[in-house]
Write a structure and sequence with these properties.
Structural class: alpha+beta
Order of helices and strands: HHHEEHEEEHEEEHEHHHE
Number of strands: 10
Distance between the termini: 24 Å
Strand content: 15-25%
Helix content: 25-40%
Length: about 280
Amino acid sequence: MTSIRNVAAGVLLAAGIGLAVAPAASAAEPAQGPAPVSATELAQARSAVQSPAVLDQLGRFFARKGVPPTKQLTIGAAEEAQAASAAAPRLTGETVPVYTLDAAFVAGTPGAAVARAEFTASRVVSTDGQVASVWTVKEGGAWRVVNIASGGDENDYAAQAASTGGGTAFREPQLNAWYVLRDGRVLPLDDEARGSVGDSGVTLAAYRQLVRERYGDKLPGSAYDRAGKGGGYRPDAAGEPAGSGGSVLPAATATAALSVTAVAGAGLALRRRVGVRRG
């Protein structure tokens, strides 16, 4: 199930811009898990994916079969349009919140949860079996699709966590590692996570120490940050309010939150799992 995915800046957490941090639990221990995303929010996010404009873009995504929109296909525009229509993209499974390792947790902020909701993901399939994950964030009180990624890691790992005892699935994008937080332990869901915490996982406190050792010297203002090697954490976002309407998901611009490149005329971004830079 392991796959490699392109990540913003290749180094640090997806920026903590405009993301809400779960309320503090205590000064001594991190919170057990991130704030949940309501069923209403998830339904609204899913509705955004079902718009005709997004479905049309998904058809083109599938028609290109991995060829970036900046490169020309070997087929003409008419053939591409026909293939896009034939793809007939449809949603399958549930729309899920995607939780990402929280910079405030790494920085040791008292009460910070291990992860925060970064975006929602909806699994979409084509008639020929291709799979894509459609990412949405909340902006200005409305849900907007900001990215289409090949494959369905987000939904797959959420389902895997649910089927193996429950808990919250979250990712550490620097390692392409997926974990589940369950009963105070961080347990692995993929090979990268097993390489990080072992087959039996570690306590939440031990995991916090682990990620502080990995990334504590890469906070804003560090030599690493000043050298321009990464986007830097934004632990100061801990003091920012939640998104519009009390959402625990980001109310930030899509390009800032996800470091994506907009597709001309579509307002979406296409991101594929092409590699991870761990510098």
